[in-house]
Amino acid sequence: MRAINLLLAGLLMLAWGATASAEKSRDAVNGVIPACGWTTKVARPNDDLMYTLQEKKRRGCIIEVKALHPTQSAVGMLAAACKSARVSSEAAAGNLQDYLLKDNRWVPVVRGPGGVFYLTDHHHLAVAVWNATIEDQDKKVYAYLLDDWSALKESVFWERMKNAHRAWLFNRAGQSIPPSALPNEVGKLQDDPLRTLSAWVRENCGYVKCDPPGAAKSDDGQSCADRSCEEKFGSKKLPCANAYFIEFAWGAFLGSDEAAIPEVKAALDAACSQQNPMNQQCLDTQYDKLLKVLPAAMQATAALEAKTWVEGKASDQTAGKGKKGSTTTSVGHNPKVQQPLLPPKCSIGDAQ
Predict the structure, then answer these.
(1) Span 199-205, average pLDDT
(2) What's the CA gap between 329 and 204, in Å, rounded?
(3) Residue pair 146/95 in contact by the 8 Å Cβ criterion
(4) Tens of pLDDT along 203-229?
(5) Which residue blocks in 30-122 are alpha helix, DSSP H?
(6) Domain boundaries, the chain
(7) Do residues 144 and 106 touch, judged by C-beta distance below 8 A?
(8) Structural class in CATH, domain 32-191
(9) Taxonomically, which superkingdom (predicted)?
């Protein structure tokens, strides 16, 4: 009888352990993740240098958007507005956490001097959450730690950030800026219409950007236009862009004297400041002006001079997003002029 009781107790312990393990797994999936802080551990990439969703959940953390420090000076507010509408819609449907927990919406961060968390990508998503129609306490994102450089002096830290391609220290004209010129919070990021125009050109195959195998797509996934570009002009036909901050580099070209697009100045004058909620009238005006510029922008990016100019800008950041060990920089130049399609026009209150 005693042996039977011991056997039953053992079986109960095994069942309890399995249940606890399952509950722990469900908790991870449901987003029970600690707040970012000094105890947050550096995430480990796999053999392909990719960060898996499992690793992000295992070592990742959740952080208020207002606590993130940008590593670039601007975003394209039109793109951010579309994402913000989507975030608001997901929140209204009760799906915000599931939406933000998707692999491609975890934001990469670096812990710098003083324990400050620096956002190194997904600035548009952070701006979208910041401006979404949700409660302030819900304006958070999930993050994974790339590096812990908190022990470095400020000057050494920024030198390492630059060398590791973790910061875009240029203004919208492509001119170099010091780290002190960067905004200290997401809510102070400026609008760069050229960044939006560059994204539209990319989506219409004006230049081709292909993700390496196993990489998580952008925070809204790969658009139909992006898939079409990859099918039409993939690596077998054109070298896909692997340079860092390639959208900014092409945007800077479109605003340069080399591109010689007179209508660009009018579009730049239509920049929209960050407001909560964003100013729909300003965004609509900017959309109309950029739409008029788009055909000329497509023409300009196809020129050989465009390739040379952007390669020069990209060389400041070096290559590294192609195959493991590759040192060849490609800017994804497409010499064939493409006929642009109508870009999506978002209303802040609607999901697009």
Answers:
(1) 91
(2) 22
(3) no
(4) 898 998 865 444 455 555 444 455 566
(5) 53-59, 77-92, 96-100
(6) 32-191, 192-341
(7) yes
(8) alpha beta
(9) Bacteria
